[in-house]
Amino acid sequence: MKKTILAPELADLPGSDYETTASSLAVITHHDDHRAVNVSGLAYPGVETITAQTRTILEFLEKLLETELDGSLEDITVTRFFVVESKLTTETRVRIHELRHEFFSPQHRPASTMVGVSALADERMHIELEVEAVIPDSGWETNVVSLSATEDADTS
């Protein structure tokens, strides 16, 4: 099986005793009919608000998938949001979900987890996002199944 390590230089830490952090931006494993992509936690401390950081991360992911991996946001199967607890308010969750609706179509919404954490690696970071994607060689055939409650059968 083939494995591609994407951009290990992006994980370097200035001032470290080591040349690299021993990690990479993403790891792609190549399979017969698809590529599986695991993207390291992404953060963007260059802007102040959690909404702006989240938008910038999602825009970066969209560009990464399209330009470097011949994929799209539709290929993301799992998202993991790590949010600094002091920022994890009801309003923040609403803003993040609004952005998810903006970036992910109903037919391709990924499974998702949002976790409150005490801190991230840089105090300017409010949110970090880790994703998994599967890029099929021949596109998706997607079924959306609702698990809405059904009325119980007549028990009389």
Topology:
Elements: E1 2-6, E2 26-30, E3 34-42, H1 50-68, E4 76-84, H2 90-103, E5 111-117, E6 127-136
Parallel strand pairs: 4-5
Antiparallel strand pairs: 1-2, 2-3, 3-6, 4-6
Helix pairs in contact: 1-2
Can you tell me about this structure?
21% of the residues lie in helices and 29% in strands. It has helices spanning 50-68, 90-103, and strands at 2-6, 26-30, 34-42, 76-84, 111-117, 127-136. It has a six-stranded mixed β-sheet, with helices on one face. β2 and β3 (34-42) form a beta hairpin. The termini are far apart.
Question: Can I get a quick summary?
Answer:
The chain is α+β, with helices and mostly antiparallel strands and 156 residues long.
